[in-house]
Amino acid sequence: MTALTYAFLGGGNMNGAILRGLLDAPLGEGARVHVTTRSAASAAAAESDDRVTTTALENEPRANLAAVEHADVVVLGVKPYLIGELLDEIASSLKPDAVVISVAAGVRLESLAARLPEGAQIVRSMPNTPASIGLGVTGLAANASTSEQSLAVAVALFESVGRVATVDEDRIDALAAVSGSGPAHVFLLIEQYLEATKRLGFDEDLARELVVGTFEGAVGMVVRDPDTEPAELRRRVTSPNGTTERSVAELQDGDLAGLFERAFAANQRRSAELAAENS
């Protein structure tokens, strides 16, 4: 892939994770990256790399305009409530063929397009926090103006921090419920499993070793054996009339499937509310 010029507007955690992935990936070879942050302190703490130029808005108010002027890829990493103001600021300075990628939750493509020049190529992304260790899952939805080549650029960028799924925008909220918010759901399961384990009398260190090791091992079996369904893996360790069968039955009686469905529905309702607030 031809070396590109990137503008990362916003120095938050997710933009930082994506930037690190870019710099470590082949697509980062020869790339030029301009990063803008709100404060000089954030700029000083930013990525130290010869390919990266970081500018603080408090020192240079026109930093965003300078960053996007020659950028092939513009990554919007500010909070959702700041997206409109940022787009209004940079719209006239974008290259005509630039691809604009939004990392802001709840801001729809039509809201982004309304503040950009007609025909702007826009990709809406929904990454998750494991991107910070290269194990992210990111959903991407592009508007009709985005070329296959530009979408491929966005896919490659997020593949540098994990897996990527391209979907129609009407599936983004559902994807956000599953993978965007998913790490918090998994952390909650581990948290509660850990608390229940300590109530069995294990100390903190041993309980953590038992619980984290069990989750790691079980997920590892699913990853290494993609042809076997998780339900089948569960059946293989569930002997008839055995101890595992009894504990699994208790969990199933708690309607885990229904609980997840209700959690996902609540998540999607909140996404719709955020979209309305940022339209």
UniProtKB/TrEMBL annotation:
Q: Which GO terms describe its molecular function?
A: pyrroline-5-carboxylate reductase activity
The catalytic activity of this protein is classed by the Enzyme Commission as 1.5.1.2
In terms of InterPro entries, this protein maps to: 6-PGluconate_DH-like_C_sf (IPR008927), NAD(P)-bd_dom_sf (IPR036291), P5C_Rdtase_cat_N (IPR028939), P5CR_dimer (IPR029036), Pyrroline-COOH_reductase (IPR000304)
Q: Which residues form the Pyrroline-5-carboxylate reductase catalytic N-terminal domain?
A: 6-106
Per the record, what are the reactions this protein catalyses? L-proline + NADP(+) = (S)-1-pyrroline-5-carboxylate + NADPH + 2 H(+); L-proline + NAD(+) = (S)-1-pyrroline-5-carboxylate + NADH + 2 H(+)
Pathway in which the depicted protein is active: Amino-acid biosynthesis; L-proline biosynthesis; L-proline from L-glutamate 5-semialdehyde: step 1/1
> Where is it found, in Gene Ontology cellular component terms?
cytoplasm
Give me the residues that bind NADPH, please.
N64
Its chief place of residence is: cytoplasm
Q: Which residues form the Pyrroline-5-carboxylate reductase dimerisation domain?
A: 169-274
Protein's cellular compartments: Cytoplasm
Q: Which UniProt keywords apply?
A: Amino-acid biosynthesis, Cytoplasm, NADP, Oxidoreductase, Proline biosynthesis
Q: Name one GO biological process term.
A: L-proline biosynthetic process
For binding NADP(+), which residues are annotated in this chain's numbering? L9, G10, G11, G12, N13, M14, T37
Q: Does the keyword Amino-acid biosynthesis apply?
A: yes
Q: By its UniProt entry, which PANTHER family does this protein fall under?
A: PYRROLINE-5-CARBOXYLATE REDUCTASE, PYRROLINE-5-CARBOXYLATE REDUCTASE 3
Family designation = Belongs to the pyrroline-5-carboxylate reductase family.
Q: What does this protein do?
A: Catalyzes the reduction of 1-pyrroline-5-carboxylate (PCA) to L-proline.
Q: Which NCBIfam families match?
A: proC (TIGR00112)
- This chain's protein is named Pyrroline-5-carboxylate reductase
Which species does the entry assign this protein to? Pseudoclavibacter terrae
